[in-house]
Write a structure and sequence with these properties.
12 strands, single chain, 8 helices, alpha+beta, 278 residues, seven-stranded mixed sheet, 34% helix
Length: 278
């Protein structure tokens, strides 16, 4: 298997990191207040291809607020969000930095009033996430990380502790747009035989955040958008997790799906993911 360490990246200006982290944290706090105040109440979903492909007034409002603040604080840095569409992403990716935001990650849960959704924001450069924040409104937690500065939960440092046993662990995953992703049933069966539970909870950012927090041993995503995962990947990598593509190579946001895992279990989870259907 390929080595799990990521390629070294150049140091960033400390003032930029501090300012980006402060602004992102402020926006995450704003979003948490709005989400808890409005979840399950008077939201007006709009259907697209699927009745569950929802856009809400809250999502649009939070994205507009995020854009206004970031435009004032970081003029000239593109902001790409779920509500604004993916068409702008290739252009933004050619710039030195870009912000990506998912104002309500877990919209189905939010609309239903199920207490499992989040706000995710990240500053990205060509090496991956520079700063990431994820607001977990129902647990009153703001998770934040900056490259080389570690991960914090409401200001308290978070670092993965080694775990001896694979059995009894939890793996998070999410459905793809088409439902169950190819190989998902076989992956779940392999995990079950190893006495590992697989959970689908409905927020991509929170799924990865559980790895950063040490609650889950891994998270597997068959597909994703950049704004879904960037903030949480910053948390996970700074907490000591590894991020691998399906080919087993470490990349910050690999194409074709990703695995985020505690280092000691990454090889096992990758083998289950890559194995042909039983």
């Amino acid at each position: 298997m390929t080595a799990l360490s990521s390629q070294p990246v150049p140091a960033l200006e400390p003032a930029l990191l501090s300012r980006a982290l402060e602004v992102a944290g402020r926006l995450a706090n704003d979003a948490a207040d709005v989400i808890t105040a409005t979840a399950g109440r008077d939201v007006r979903p709009e259907t697209d291809e699927s009745p569950f492909d929802w856009v809400t007034d809250t999502g649009r409002t939070l994205e507009r607020h995020t854009r206004r603040v970031l435009a004032a604080e970081f003029p000239g840095v593109p902001v790409i969000g779920e509500e604004s569409g993916a068409g702008k992403l290739p252009v933004a990716a050619s710039t030195e930095y870009r912000w990506v935001v998912d104002p309500v990650d877990g919209t189905i849960n939010y609309v239903a009033g199920i207490p499992w959704c989040s706000y995710s924001l990240a500053l990205i450069d060509r090496f991956g996430p520079v700063v990431g924040v994820v607001a977990d409104p129902y647990r009153a937690q703001i998770y934040a990380a900056a490259r080389g500065r570690g991960t914090r939960a409401n200001g308290a440092p978070v670092r993965l502790a080694p775990r001896a046993e694979l059995a009894g662990g939890v793996i998070c995953t999410e459905l793809s747009r088409g439902g169950i992703w190819p190989g998902m049933a076989a992956f779940t069966e392999r995990a079950g035989r190893a006495r590992v539970a697989v959970r689908v909870l409905g927020s991509t950012a929170l799924a990865i955040a559980q790895v950063a927090l040490g609650h889950a041993i891994g998270a597997v995503l068959h597909d994703y958008e950049e704004w879904d995962v960037a903030g949480a990947i910053a948390l996970a990598t700074e907490a000591g997790a590894v991020v691998l593509g399906r080919d087993g190579r470490p990349r910050p946001m690999p194409m074709g799906g990703l695995l985020v895992a505690a280092p000691e279990f990454a090889a096992d989870l990758l083998a289950w993911w890559r194995a042909p259907d039983d």
